[in-house]
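User: Second chain of the day. Same drill as before.
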Amino acid sequence: MKLQDLRDNYKSKTAEERYDYYRTLPLDDKDLFGDTLLDIALNFADVEALKILLERNVAVNEVNRNGNRPLHNLILSSEYKNLDDVLTCIELLLDNGASVLRKNDMGETPILSAIRGNYVEILELFIKRNLKLDLKDSYGNGPLHIAAYSCNSNNEEKKKKIFKLLLDAGIENDIKNDDGYTSIDILANQRVNPILFSILKGEYDFDNPNSTSNLTSAMSLHSAILSSNYDVIKVHLKVGTDINEISEENNNSYGLSPLGVACHILDFESVELLLKNGADPNLKNNDGQSAMDIAVENNNEDLINWLLTKI
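Assistant: Same format as last time:
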């Protein structure tokens, strides 16, 4: 099978040998894996091969064996490809009628696929071409929802750029998905750098990256305690955030003071920081409980004895 030979020996063949296959084999031929000439060309991000296929009027919006359209196929397999070749192939597909509005079998547009893969340069290309960005997937997730998922230290810098690109392009951060979550809600369920929160909320001061407001705007004192983010806690204490404020946030801190939150989750380090900075151990929450009451409720003898020395 000639098509299978092309796939199996792609790198060992000369360019002209490869391009002869692209000029002569039927466009609808499939190899043993069910891939067509177009699939193979995109899997290798072969610019010249793609040009040949486009001259032959290859269909640029059909779904392949994996449920992906050509743009999806190219984007999802782009991680280890030459970036310039990938971007050129995307431009060629777009110039020849490939649609960013059409979804794959997962209900995802090519733009959402690029965001999910953290492909910053591909997203920049789509934005520069003024393409429609705000379509949702099958679960009601828009671009910022997708970007907010799976944040970690390995992709943090890319996430920062993607958040900023999307916000600058007019994507709103308060839209809810089908489960009722905004992108900020999704990010809040992960242990991430608080700077990501500040950027996603649209509050980060890029002109003053060392500003303390970048941290305090990213995460409230109550949320910082819930996340055991001591750097943010210390910044709040330094700038004079109300250390006895009762939380009205829609999370596990609701109705509690910062000290109440720390006692509730048995975070001794936060308890000590708060007491050293003037937190009132006798302050009662909305349910009439003090920090000591919460410690007793949790039946934590160490915390109870420690609080007794502070009251």
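Residues 3 and 31 are 6 Å apart (CA to CA).

User: Great, on to the next one.
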